Amino acid sequence: MEQTSSREVYANPWMTVREDGVRRDDGSDGIYGVIDKPDYALVIPLDGDRVHLVEQFRYPLGMRRWEFPQGTAPNRADVEAGELAARELREETGLRAATMHELGPLDVAPGMSSQRGRVFLATGLTEGAHEREHEEQDMRTAWFSRTDFEKMIHAGEVTDAQSIAAYALLLLHERRTG
After folding, report:
1. Of these residues, 19, 91, 102, 136, which one is catalytic?
2. What Å distances lie between residue 126 and 9, 50, 133, CA to CA?
């Protein structure tokens, strides 16, 4: 598929939306809407058999959701993935990690967004004060056993696709290094 044109139709400090003209392989023309967001980091804080989750109100869904700490740099800045992961962990939970191991990449919604993520396993954790952004002021955090976390996924209490996919990367990592 070849891009023939592009125009930005919306922008704010977190994302842009563009509409691209495209030419398909068969020669026909079409359009593609793309949401451009900066890459994000997701962190799985692991302490023995426990994972640390954050819960916050997700406005587009109209409900509170449990998930792993994750996010992007402010104002669509480009920040190295490991640095971003450490910042998100500290910001959202107050935790600091002695070790951050990259587990792999995730694509959020490749049919409509250019955003990609990197998943990190954080271990050797120490507690500290969180440094939440204004939009995160309603955030709560808690430790859960892995068994309880898996039950929460099964019961539909954890539905964040990135968190569930990140957990699958952790399981594959453990199977490989096990």
Report:
1. 136
2. 44, 14, 21
